[in-house]
Amino acid sequence: MSYTSRLTKAIIDLDALVKNYQYISKLASNSDTIAVIKADAYGHDASKVAQALSSEVNLLAVAFMDEALALRADGINTKVLVLEGPFKESDIELALENNFALMLHSNYQIDWLKSTSPEFSGELWLKLDTGMNRLGFQVEQVDKIMAQLSTQQIKNLVLCSHFATADQIDCNRPVEQLEKLKALVEKYGCKFSMANSAGILNWPESHGHYNRLGLALYGASPIGDSRKSRPLIPAMTLQANIIAIHTVKIGESVGYGNIWQAQRDTKLATVAIGYADGYPRNAKSGTPVYINGSLAPLVGRVSMDMITIDITDLKHTAIGDTVELWGKNLNIDIVAQNSDTINYELLTRVSKRVP
């Protein structure tokens, strides 16, 4: 039996998500924009996002094979790129059976590919390390790798790399990384992909045959507040309800550790959401929430299932009122900044107990 008593929920606006995709695609109209839906579409439900984008996208991207197969199990037939490539040799056969493109980044994956019989005829991407120093072949290894691929495999090969600092518009490193990749693209005549969300917005010269749209698809900005990011519409609204209201006197504390003390007689509301739901435990006192058209500050430490907010200055606040933790009325970046984290982490760690 499925029964929901608590009113805490993450509301996903799929129409907003589609509009974000269309907006970003227009910024790079000569590229094929990939929808990156790894980590359950950044917490937005990968299958539902894939279905909503089915008439828009030619290629989806996930992190590993398990995520790709889950899409097929849910009836998603769009081609899928597996960004971290095969974890097992058997993944290569699964990729061919399910129309998955594979990103190759290490020699052991090349060895698996070479031992596959008959020859793997699916789409291959080659991950190159141009400065991120996390994953991919070194630039000087590429000649050796290309020599191990067949003519047919090279014909449809995509060369790919990843920006380390695309969000920093005044940094020269993205230019250096792009130059390294484009030199190889020119040498081998391959298609290429460099731009992630920040690259699409900040570095138009990095728009390739494919761009990889992740965070911005969900209406969050990878570059902070800017002219290009302002049209993005938040696709997730995280909300919960007030379950108790009480007043504390000057000097009294609230929550674990007594980290906040009332500087005045204070009216407090307890809200049914906590770190077990994905609201950040390290959110500081003063982190805003949105309620009845106004902002109210978090006070005290975030608990597993509850937070406490100061509603002293709000009028007409009652038990049952809806509190927005982030979404269309409260930018997720504000919560992230008050929690010493980033918008990516907040979106992806909303837990499964939040419907």
Structural class: alpha/beta
Described by the principal axes of the CA atoms, the overall outline is: elongated
Unreliable segments of 5+ consecutive residues: none
What is the H/E string?
Answer: EHEHHEHEHEHEEHHEHEHEEEEEEEHH
Mean pLDDT score: 97
What is the CATH superfamily classification of the largest domain? Alanine racemase
Radius of gyration: 23 Å
Proportion of helical residues: 25-40%
**β content, as a range?**
15-25%
Distinct helical segment count: 12
At CATH level 2, the architecture of the largest domain is Alpha-Beta Barrel
What is the CATH domain class of the largest domain? Alpha Beta
Q: Describe the biggest sheet?
A: 9 strands, parallel
By CATH, the topology of the largest domain is TIM Barrel
Count up the domains. Answer: 2
Distance between the termini: 15 Å
Number of strands: 16
Tell me what the structure shows.
The protein has 355 residues and is of the alpha/beta class. It has two domains: 14-218, TIM Barrel (Alpha-Beta Barrel), CATH 3.20.20.10; 236-348, Lyase, Ornithine Decarboxylase, Chain A, domain 1. It has twelve helices and 16 strands. It has helices at 14-27, 38-43, 46-52, 65-73, 90-98, 107-115, 142-146, 151-155, 173-188, 197-202, 332-337, 343-348, and strands at 9-12, 32-36, 59-62, 79-82, 100-104, 124-129, 137-138, 158-160, 191-193, 210-213, 236-248, 266-271, 288-291, 294-297, 307-310, 322-326. The strands form two sheets. Strands 2, 3, 4, 5, 6, 7, 8, 9 and 10 form a nine-stranded parallel beta sheet that branches. Strands 1, 11, 12, 13, 14, 15 and 16 form a seven-stranded antiparallel beta sheet that branches. Helix 6 (107-115) links the parallel strand 5 and strand 6 (124-129). The longest helix is centred in the middle third of the chain and has 16 residues, at 173-188. It is elongated, with a radius of gyration of 23 Å. The two termini are 15 Å apart. The model has no long low-confidence stretch (mean pLDDT 97).
